[in-house]
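Example 3.2
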Amino acid sequence: MSFLSTAFLYGLAAAAIPLVIHLIQRQRYPERQFTTLRFFDKTIKNNTLQRRIIDRILLLLRIAALIAIVLGLSRPFWRTPLGEQRGSFVIVLDNSPSMSRERDGVSLFEHGKKAAEQILKTLGPSDRAEILFTAPLPEPLRVERKKLEEELRLRQGTPAALLVAGAKGLELSVPELTTDLPRLEAALQKSSGDAALIDCESAPAPQFSSDLAALLSILQQSRLSAQPGNLKKTLSLAAQLLRTSQDGDRKIILISDMQKSELQGDKAETQGISVLALPFEPSSAGANLGIESCSVPVGETDFGQTIVGSAVLRNYGAEASDAATLTIHCGDKSKPVEIKIAAIQPGGTLVVSFPIQVMSSERNLLCKAQLNSPTDTFVYDNSWYFQVGVRFPVVTLLVNGTPSETLSNRESFYLTNALVPRAGSGQSNAADVRECDVAEFKDRRLAEFGVLILAGVPMLDADAREKIRQFISDGKSVLVFPGTKTSPEEYNAWGFLPAQIQEVKSKSFTYVLSVNEKTSAMKAVHERLGAGVHSLSTQSRLVLEPAAQAQVLARFADETPALVEGALGKGRVIFAATSAHASSSDWPLRPA
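Structure, written as tokens:
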């Protein structure tokens, strides 16, 4: 015997209550000395025994009544082959795109729906069932853009996909579930037509039902999904549901084409649960060439650079594939890359490399790998979407402190060449440099710039100092190089520098001994230069005394600071101890 509601069995403890009450209230007669009883009627003794027997019978009846109530609430049943036996069944119907293939002119999904209907009609009146689908069903397209954008922000951290309608819908859609909110937002902003968000987590929790009409209605309204299915996860969910049932017959009925690309991953947790598979094969199995994965070596790359990505191709079919073409589309500014693919044997894989030129007006470059195979029986797994982060050159304002008609005499000349290398040098631009003289600085708006560089600026008035302090406090950065006419009194009065000038040393050769590679500002410098950092030398320099909260980024051979970094509000300031002009230092000749 088994019970459906075992929690009520704890109520059996209540059966002791009548016994306790009986023991408390039973009569106890005191013993007293009395004369002989032979002259009394014997019926008195018989009435006493009769009352005791009746009391015990009533006690047993009260205990039995409580036990019967508890057992009734616990819903006992017997596992026996006699009579009708109730069963619990979970029908797992594959609605992934691979079920769109046809057999006898009808899609495999329609064949599967008919098979599921026949199974439901054979269930007994007391049997229970549930229908699970392997792929999430899309929601209706929404045209209210603002509502869709708000909903996207609310789903941050929840896996979601984006389907876009229109001529460029396939290019802009993000068909796989992802938590990458910037990617979804970028795709949505580029689209102008209808769009829909898909969230597989919105499906209600599965539960058994004996309502055959409701189950048939769910089955008739079901449709193919535009997303790949997860067969193993769905089987594990079905097994988890069946483990909550105490019915005598528990079974998973799987209706699927058993597409191998959807059977990858961890093993389904179905131990102890009977699984009946009803496979549906297409009319011709043939070859099935698909993209298993696409990857890029880095998550973010400088604008204009070329990186090498890789794709893993697999033949999931039973026959060797024919020659195919892999086309890589990256944004709308790069020419598609086409790669010829040789034949791949059944079950075999091939790793293909391809170049990606990072050219995008957005922070994320959306890419698509498309596999074109003339004899492929299933084309859904022939596409793969991925993205590459784009680092744009920092918009920088370079303020020249020494105006001159001769370019080489300007304090900013060599620094500009270092930040914007010549074409064909193989180096990426560190900054998008806009240059002005110190006299023009007061008329420049700083909102569009991320970095401000002062190159040999001899003097700043009160308005300019306050303008720079506000620029830094807003989260921007300032890099200061002194000039040949630097006045310690003037610089020490600026109020935003991270160090005070103690002394000016001219005609004093020294070199950079070390850099603090643990800081974010110098990590990349150390990686590029390594031991070459010692070749950074100078003929004249400042002796700096760092502020209390500042940190030294680099030191000269005599241990005096070469670079000092400090914070002001949300931004940072770096103060160099030497000029940016080649007459005093070779620093601007080293782009690293």
